[in-house]
Amino acid sequence: MKKTFFISFIYVLTILAFLDAGATKGIRKDYHGWKAGVARVIITPDHPLWMAGYASRDHPAEGTLNDLWAKALALEDATGNRAVLVTMDLVGIPKGFSDRLRARLKTRFHLSAAQVILNSSHTHSGPVLEDALVDIYPLDSLEIIKIKKYTGQLEDKITRLVGEALHSLKPAQLYSKNGIARFQVNRRNNIEAILNSQTQLNGPNDYAVPIIKVTGKSGNIIAIAFGYACHNTVLNGYKWSGDYAGFAQLELEKKYPAAIALFFQCCGADQNPLPRRTVPLAQQYGQTLAAAVERVLNENMEELTPHLITSYKEIDLSLTAPPTKDKLLKTARDSTGYQKRWAARLLKQLDQGDSFRTSYPYPLQVWRLGNQTMMILGGEVVIEYAVQLKRIFGEDIFVLGYSNDVMAYIPSATILGEGGYEGATSQMVYGLPATWALNIETLIISQMVLLAEQAGILKPELKLIKN
Questions:
Q1: I need a labelling partner for 429 at 20 to 30 A (CA). Which of 129, 205, 300, 421 fits?
Q2: pLDDT tens-digit series, residues 215-247
Q3: Is the pTM of this model over 0.85?
Q4: 82-88 vs 116-120, strand pairing mode
Q5: 441: Cβ–Cβ under 8 A, 6 or more apart, which residues?
């Protein structure tokens, strides 16, 4: 009996010692807080390139309204876990670019896909990238070579940028809170041409302005990361610009000259800044957004404990049946512009005996900074996804779209049923052979819930969602 008790006692001590070692592994005795580093680099092309975002453009850029930027915020928690948020003044990044860049960051800096967010502001006044929106623009071989060269240079710049941010890690404090701004307009439920005479705007909408404030050892602000769910489409000319988000960042950096402001795009695929089409309007919206951020910076924000969790996975999103050869032939014959080029490219695939894509590997990601949950989705995500996730996880979470791979619009089940650009024809813009299957919304939301639970971030009680 005594021998059995002794063995059990030793066993318990061994287990406790193991648990204690696991709990303290990696914790450095010299510092027990956040470290943060921030860097930026100009990514404005130094020669004329074709601009991304509008199929109506018929020639390359003609100059610069304001520079395009890539910016990086590197974070390290008390145990040495690291993560990097990269923001870019681009309409979006394709899978090939994302995969190559993340592979370089893993080799160079030991950062996994979970530890890196690659977010595009979705400005429609930035450059076309290689293998992105391939059917929109009538590019000749010379333009394709120029785009390929710029894309390679951009990969090099962002790799160095992340290294600079990591190299500059210093003790810091992190704070978070949501602000509010109301210049986004749901473009599916409001008619732009009669907006001035409307007395009521229709939704759904998400007016949140998610903000992360980073202060240095002395309390000075060194970085401001903020987002909004709205297309960067005030401007449609031929000059490089970050659009309203670019003006917002410039405004904040003017008010806080020691800080770098980083804009991340949220789920604004069906949200437009309206009215639009003038530089003063882009400046107005930028100032409005900057004022929303500044208000929160001067209020009591929640201080985030130095604990970082990151998680990532890809799920297969199914596509519906592709068009028949007869339908493609008709589209190629009767259509113009990108629709004609889309049909011609698919017909060429058929003639070569190639099969069409039937699904797509869609990226999901979750970060937890202290008590702040961030949910990160790929593609052009419509606002309903943010609304749904906030109903499940709470209004204080941050929901990002346009991250890691911008492969297509991500419509809700409602929008898929209604059709229109976001639901029925935008897949042509991105080169997909067909629309998404009807289970897309249910699959993405359920997998985001599962990813959060598997990461141990939180275990929400699923609520009945009224459509």
A1: 205
A2: 998 999 999 999 999 999 999 999 999 999 999
A3: yes
A4: parallel
A5: 384, 385, 388, 411, 412, 413, 416
